[in-house]
Design goal:
Strand order of the largest sheet: 1-2-3-5-4-6-7-10-11
Structural class: alpha/beta
CATH superfamily of the largest domain: Alpha/Beta hydrolase fold, catalytic domain
Organism: Junco hyemalis (Dark-eyed junco)
Number of helices: 11
CATH architecture of the largest domain: 3-Layer(aba) Sandwich
Radius of gyration: 20 Å
Largest sheet: 9 strands, mixed
Keywords: Hydrolase, Membrane, Mitochondrion, Transit peptide, Transmembrane, Transmembrane helix
Enzyme class: hydrolase
Subcellular location: Mitochondrion
Distance between the termini: 30 Å
GO molecular function: hydrolase activity, hydrolyzing O-glycosyl compounds; mycophenolic acid acyl-glucuronide esterase activity; palmitoyl-(protein) hydrolase activity
Helix content: 40-55%
CATH topology of the largest domain: Rossmann fold
């Protein structure tokens, strides 16, 4: 069941607040430039409006934004502890809108605007979120774009829904990464984490410098590893990875390319690319990659 969130009152408040800012601080408005202010205001308005919720009887509601259009549709899968409002997601939405293609971005359970507690989530639960989006909100072939952990989940979705997943685009795919990183720790360190029930996983993606993961999260994630055997995915796959990625080694994308059964696989390495791959040229590469796949699938159809 889909429930739409009405945000007209919130949106009006944002606009009025923005106009009030211009009135009170005209010198700042002129300093930063009116066009920059308008762009920021439009971005805020977009985040506040058109949010809907996929309601599920046995699971938390999932927040999403859907753009109607023709197929193949595009679905963006965020990374760990991320939400649907990142630069890659919004850039893809703008691109799909310009072409008239369907697009969906969403928040995993416990993340962003979705219901649920983040500390109770697992890879398995987030996998079910992706399948719920595919099953309930889409009709026809879809291109999945997965960032980091989202790249891991897109592989699971392609395995579970081969008739719907027409192509994959991975950005800094983190398949199995949390599990393999844990298993590379000294045995003493692994035992200490098991006893404490918590692992402070080092990362450059937040101010703290680490993600706090439960031992149960790690153990559950082991059930979803894909790199230990051939991956039964045969659709076209494009894998983009930055060679300066300090969180997820680019070699993982090479492993995925080697493991999938698909023959139509390209790995694109950006020599100066970081983990988020959100620079202007990185985003342009991502959009062009999706554009090429849309053309390819449309020609085949």
């Amino acid at each position: 069941m889909v429930t739409e969130l009405k945000a007209t009152r919130q949106l009006s408040g944002v606009i009025l607040s923005g106009l009030g800012f211009c009135t009170i601080y005209p010198h700042l408005t002129l300093y930063f430039g009116l066009h920059h202010f308008c762009a920021l205001l439009l971005k805020i308005c977009r985040l506040k409006s058109s949010v809907s919720f996929l309601t599920r009887p046995d699971r938390p509601n999932i927040a999403y934004q859907k753009l109607k259009g023709r197929n193949p549709g595009v679905i963006f899968l965020p990374g760990f502890n991320s939400n649907m409002n990142g630069q890659k997601a919004t850039a893809l939405e703008d691109f799909c809108k310009s072409l008239g293609h369907a697009f969906i971005r969403f928040d995993y359970t416990g993340c962003g605007s979705s219901d649920g507690k983040f500390e109770e989530c697992t890879i398995g639960k987030w996998r079910k979120d992706v399948l719920s989006i595919l099953d309930e909100l889409t009709d026809g072939p879809q291109i999945l774009v997965g960032s980091s952990m989202g790249g891991w989940l897109m592989l699971h979705a392609a395995i579970a829904r081969p008739d719907k997943v027409a192509a994959l685009v991975g950005v800094a795919v983190a398949a199995d990464h949390v599990v393999t990183t844990f298993k590379r720790l000294p045995i003493e360190a692994q035992k200490e984490i098991e006893e404490k029930g918590e692992w402070k996983y080092q990362t450059k993606q937040n101010e703290e410098g680490y993600y706090s993961l439960t031992y149960d999260f790690i153990r559950e994630a082991e059930n979803h590893c894909v790199l230990n055997s051939p991956i039964p995915v045969t659709c076209p796959i494009r894998l983009i990875h930055g060679m300066k990625d300090g969180d997820v080694p680019w070699e993982i994308s090479m492993q995925v390319a080697d493991r999938v059964l698909s023959k139509d696989v390209d790995v694109i390495l950006r020599k100066i690319g970081q983990h988020r791959m959100s620079d202007k040229e990185d985003t342009k590469l991502l959009v062009n990659t999706v554009d090429d796949l849309i053309d390819k699938l449309s020609t085949v159809a």
